[in-house]
Amino acid sequence: MRDLLTDASGNVPASLVPLEAVLTDVTNRYPVLEWIRRSPAARLLARLAQSPDAFTHQALDALPANANTSYVRGLLVTAGVPPYRQENLARLETWLTGKLAQLPPHHVTLVRPFAEWGIVKDARRRAARGRYSLGAYKGDCTDIRVTLKFLAWLDDQNLHVRDLTQAHLDDWASTHPTQRTRLIPFVRWAHARRIVRNLEIHHRPSQLPGTFQDETTHQAELRRCLTDTSLPLPMRIIGALVRLYALPLTRIVELTTDQVHRDAEATYLTLDRHPVLLPPTLASLLDEQIAQLHDPLPSPGRRHLLLPGAVPGRPRNPAGLADQMRHHGLPVRAARNTALMEAITDLPPIVVADLFGISPATAHRWSQLAGNSWAPYLAARQRSRP
Fold first, then answer.
1. pTM, entire model
2. Do both 171 and 246 map to the same domain?
3. Domains in the chain: how many in total?
4. What b/e readout covers 98-127, taking b as 16+ CB neighbours within 10 angstroms?
5. Same domain, yes or no: 129 and 60
6. 197 within a domain of the structure (yes/no)
7. 3-state secondary structure of 270
8. H-helix or E-strand containing 69?
9. 133 and 257 fall within a common domain
10. What is the CA angle 334-310-243, rounded to 5?
């Protein structure tokens, strides 16, 4: 195992000593030895060990962006060799740099400031709050791609962006119905900077959720998550979080161990900014999960995922996780819709927004669906002011 990390002089570089400790300090070494013998990622790690400067994020970014590089990076970050970074944000910035290098100059002059100030700045803000998920990264990339496609369309029409009219925009939107809303950020940004006149892309009516569970099914599945020891522990925790707090999988996979905290009487899970009281049974499941993690307490500058994926330090894929939950008879969408409907019926929408970390607009839309008006809550708050 030591040979994997030795450099040309036959020594383990000082920077890799923490990684050596991670690989050797395991209860069962056989899976690690099997990984070293068979994995292309292990061979990549051995090659990188020959160069003492190969273990920075900048050096890793220069490697092919494939599964082996991702695994090695995750392993190194877990060991604390390069510092932790918000990987989805880094992927966005790296992808944008490569994309801008391929564009004609007259597109770069528009796309660079739009992407930096209209997309990346917001991504950094969300990443600082731990809320920049894989889905958010993919959505931001799509917004930029659609903007590029729109600018190419303008070139085909022999139009400059400053000549854009509402008729032109409507024409594009009608021929690109699945991409129209993805152009909204660019149009708003361009109008705010007086590049275009006041133009608008109309939203399609929001589709109301159509899949729910009856109360008996919902409660039975929740009870199963909390009590059925034949289910894998991560599936039990995920299923309970969906059914109790209406959390989407994109947020569950990003939860970290430091979001679980205790006082003398209870256990809490911090969602967005607010700690939420956990039922004792679910708290016990989380304790069991954390106890199974290697080095579960994060050191400064590092974090540990509560439900880690196959790649060290990287979350699970929400799409694949949804399939796993379905395989175990715990559908996600209908259960989350039902949990959110129950919450919005019992609590004021603004409280649900703050408590569960969803946007006020989303809470309002669900409130309208549930027939639960904001007016009584707002009136009560107004009366309570001095």
1. 0.72
2. no
3. 3
4. ebeeebeeebeebbeebbeebbbeebeebb
5. no
6. no
7. strand
8. helix 67-79
9. no
10. 20
DSSP codes of every residue in 127-169: HHTT---HHHHHHHHHHHHHHHHHHHHHHHTT--GGG--HHHH
State which residues form the domain around 333: 215-382
**Rg of the chain's alpha carbons, rounded to an integer?**
25
One-letter amino acid of 208: L
pLDDT by residue for the chain (386 residues), tens only, comes to 567 788 777 788 787 888 887 777 766 777 778 888 888 988 898 888 888 678 889 889 888 888 899 888 888 888 888 888 888 999 999 999 999 999 999 999 999 999 999 999 999 998 887 778 888 999 999 999 999 999 999 999 999 999 999 999 999 999 998 898 999 999 999 999 999 988 888 766 555 577 889 999 999 999 999 999 999 999 999 999 999 999 989 889 989 898 999 888 899 998 877 788 999 999 999 999 998 886 544 444 456 889 988 887 788 889 899 999 999 999 999 999 999 888 888 888 888 887 776 778 888 888 877 775 445 544 554 555 55
Q: 74: closest CA among 306, 321, 322, 305?
A: 305
| Residue 246 and residue 377 in one domain | yes
Q: Which helix (H) or strand (E) holds 277?
A: strand 274-277
- Helices 40-48 and 67-79: angle between axes, nearest 10 degrees: 60
Measured between alpha carbons, how far apart are the two ends of the chain, in Å? 69
CA 30-303-73 angle, to 5 degrees, is 55
